[in-house]
Design brief:
Distance between the termini: 60 Å
Strand content: 5-15%
CATH architecture of the largest domain: Orthogonal Bundle
CATH superfamily of the largest domain: Photosystem II 12 kDa extrinsic protein
Radius of gyration: 21 Å
Shape: elongated
CATH class of the largest domain: Mainly Alpha
Number of helices: 6
Structural class: alpha/beta
CATH topology of the largest domain: DNA polymerase, domain 1
Number of domains: 2
């Protein structure tokens, strides 16, 4: 058997370390759904060394509300599934399950109340901020300075861009000026 050169030993050592890091990352993620092949191909690392995962808060009418790490490019539907699926009282038609997730986003699955009325998991409009990731046109219309047309523009903008990571991104929506941005900051959360 031929002897290995120092360069070959260094290359083999680097490969071994990379495989160990990828394996440790897959194990640490605790995601039994990933196989070794998908873990090594999409373990959340890019060539620049930065994580490409998104972390989202799933709340409302789901089996296991909580904070979850999902691969970049995941959809609201993936977050709901990761949280154990929608509960029997969930009103899934009130949210866009196809929207892409943004890092730091909260996904609120509303529930049907008595008489089939949709009840937001965050409570009434005056009880707290509305989730920008799941806000309906009707919810956005309750914010001062937002009418139904601008509310529709916001939802369309969010859907075109695969979600929004910050309320400040809405300054790119036509018709939203500085005063409206202040109202949005007070009433919305990413």
């Amino acid at each position: 058997m031929p002897e290995l050169s120092r360069a070959q030993v260094a290359v083999y050592g680097a490969i071994a370390i990379a495989l160990l890091l990828i394996g440790a990352r897959a194990i640490r993620a605790g995601d039994g759904e990933r196989s070794f092949a998908s873990a090594s191909a999409g373990a959340g690392f890019s060539l620049s060394g930065q994580s490409s995962d998104v972390v989202v808060d799933v709340a409302g009418a789901v089996s296991r509300p909580g904070v979850y790490r999902l691969p970049a490019g995941s959809r609201v539907e993936d977050a709901i599934r990761r949280a154990g699926g929608a509960g029997g009282e969930a009103e899934l038609e009130a949210i866009n399950r196809a929207a892409r997730l943004a890092d730091g986003q909260q996904v609120v699955v509303p529930a049907r109340g008595p008489g089939g009325v949709v009840v937001s998991a965050a409570g009434g409009a005056d009880e707290g901020p509305i989730s920008l990731g799941t806000a309906t046109i009707e919810q956005l219309d309750t914010i001062e300075g937002i009418g139904p047309v601008t509310a529709q523009d916001i939802v369309d903008f969010r859907d075109r861009h695969g979600g929004l990571a910050a309320v400040d991104q809405l300054d790119q929506v036509p018709g939203i000026g500085p005063a409206t941005m202040e109202s949005l900051r007070a009433r919305l959360q990413p």
